[in-house]
């Protein structure tokens, strides 16, 4: 400021933890999931085993999914969703429960962080991309997922880790450069099927 001192804004919040087995239980009692939960949870989330889960959300459109992939920990689809492409951000650790619904991306679903995708169908409509891409250094787990792609199925690059526990991959590509069910490239890249 103009008088040569620093102005410091301190944000403080407390939760009564007595009578609860964990800090998470106390937090969730004080701030139940809902519209304001995401805002409040963001103030408290810290890395480590005692971290409060950032938030859970059920979504029903592409715009909500795009926003949720940048910060929510647990995302559940309420209906089939279609959009251009979807990306998990680098700092994210997210579980996307497709809830027996279909997620359609005109281009791709790209994981830059840690993501588990489970219980549904992923449709990719572009011959020049892979349906699910696990980018450099990311970790992707697929459980009970069917991937239908007009490009490649699963692409993993530069140290990415992919675990495909269950499901199927169907590639129907018009690409003349060749597309694969599973493609891994780069040092340290591991795909486990």
Strand content: 35-45%
If helices are DSSP runs of H or I spanning 4 or more residues, what is the number of helices? 3
Structural class designation: mainly beta
Q: Mean pLDDT, rounded to whole units?
A: 82
Query: What is the quaternary state of this protein?
Result: single chain
Binned, the helix content reads: 10-25%
Outline type: globular
Characterize the main sheet: 9 strands, parallel
The low-confidence parts are: 45-52
Number of β-strand runs: 14
Radius of gyration: 20 Å
SSE succession: HHEHEEEEEEEEEEEEE
Distance between the termini: 58 Å
Write the layout of secondary structure elements.
Blueprint: H1 23-30, H2 37-44, E1 56-59, H3 62-68, E2 74-77, E3 81-83, E4 86-88, E5 93-105, E6 109-111, E7 114-124, E8 130-134, E9 139-149, E10 152-157, E11 161-164, E12 167-171, E13 182-185, E14 190-192
Parallel strand pairs: 1-2, 2-5, 3-5, 4-6, 5-7, 6-8, 7-9, 8-10, 9-11, 9-12, 10-13, 11-14
């Amino acid at each position: 400021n103009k008088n040569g001192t620093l102005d410091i804004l301190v944000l403080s919040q407390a939760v009564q933890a007595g009578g609860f087995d964990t800090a998470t239980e106390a937090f969730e009692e004080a701030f139940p999931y809902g519209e304001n939960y995401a805002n409040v949870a963001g103030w408290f989330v810290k890395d480590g085993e005692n971290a409060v889960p950032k938030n859970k959300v059920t979504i029903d459109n592409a715009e909500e999914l795009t926003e949720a992939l940048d910060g929510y920990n647990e995302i559940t689809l309420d209906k089939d969703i279609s959009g251009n492409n979807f990306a998990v951000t680098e700092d994210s650790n997210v579980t996307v429960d497709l809830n027996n619904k279909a997620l359609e991306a005109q281009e791709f679903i790209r994981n830059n962080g840690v993501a588990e995708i489970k219980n549904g169908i992923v449709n990719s409509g572009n011959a020049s991309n892979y349906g699910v891409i696990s980018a450099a250094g990311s970790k992707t787990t697929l459980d009970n997922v069917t991937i239908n792609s007009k490009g490649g199925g699963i692409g993993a690059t530069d140290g990415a880790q992919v675990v495909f526990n269950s499901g199927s991959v169907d590639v129907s590509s018009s690409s003349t450069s060749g597309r694969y069910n599973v493609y891994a490239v780069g040092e340290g890249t591991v795909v486990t099927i």
